[in-house]
From TrEMBL:
Signal peptide: none annotated. SUPFAM superfamilies: Phosphoglycerate mutase-like. Substrate binds at R7, H8, G9, E10, T11, D12, A13, N14, R59. GO terms for molecular function: phosphatase activity. It comes from Hujiaoplasma nucleasis. This is Histidine phosphatase family protein. It holds the Pfam family His_Phos_1. Keywords: Glycolysis, Isomerase. The active site is at H8, E85. It comes from the Bacteria.
């Protein structure tokens, strides 16, 4: 099974470097364009997707809808609460600044979902998903920290400090274990 994990398109909060966590922000014009280009890029690869899932947040659902339209994909979109963005607690709504990395990774933020907590949530979700399903090509729309939690556990040298572009494509394969095929593919600059 291959899972094509895509970060949602840009929101105004992304553009302004504001931590949005679980805030339900819509895509902006750039985010809509990114999702269209991502769908067009995936269409050029002719991947026969047989399952689609997304986070329950609007920015992910809208990204999925746009990509599916570009792919002419008539699959139901399954909403998966366990691939929602990290809970940043008291940091939700703050501008990312010099104190962000230290506070978030030092776990001094009230209400923060720690690295260990999100990594466990993401690992538990994928373990259950892989055990109970036998799809071939899965389209998944999610968030930066869900992707990072998976990558940090399965890609030597990857860290939460790495930036994943909006609508980046991250491909994993599961046979007996998770293997990262490629990550942070920017479909907008693939021409």
């Amino acid at each position: 099974m291959k899972v094509y994990m895509i970060r949602h398109g840009e929101t105004d909060a992304n553009k302004q470097m504001i931590i949005q966590g679980r805030t339900n922000n819509p895509l902006n014009k750039t985010g809509i364009m990114q999702a269209k280009k991502t769908g067009q890029y995936l269409k050029s690869l002719q991947i026969p997707f047989d399952y689609c899932m997304t986070s329950p947040l609007d920015r992910a659902i809208h990204t999925a809808d746009i990509i599916k339209k570009e792919l002419n994909l008539n699959l139901e979109t399954h909403i998966e609460k366990d691939i929602i963005e990290r809970d940043f607690g008291a940091y939700d709504g703050r501008v990312i600044d010099d104190t962000y990395q230290e506070a978030v990774h030092g776990h001094s933020v009230p209400g923060l979902e720690t690295d260990q907590m999100i990594e466990k949530r993401v690992a538990d979700f994928f373990n259950k998903f892989f055990k109970n399903n036998h799809y071939e090509n899965v389209l998944m729309i999610t968030h930066a920290h869900v992707l990072k939690a998976l990558l940090v556990q399965n890609l030597k040298g990857f860290s939460y400090d790495e930036y994943l572009v909006n609508c980046s494509i991250n491909i994993i394969e599961y046979k007996d274990k998770i293997k990262v095929i490629e990550y942070n593919i920017d479909p907008i600059n693939q021409e």
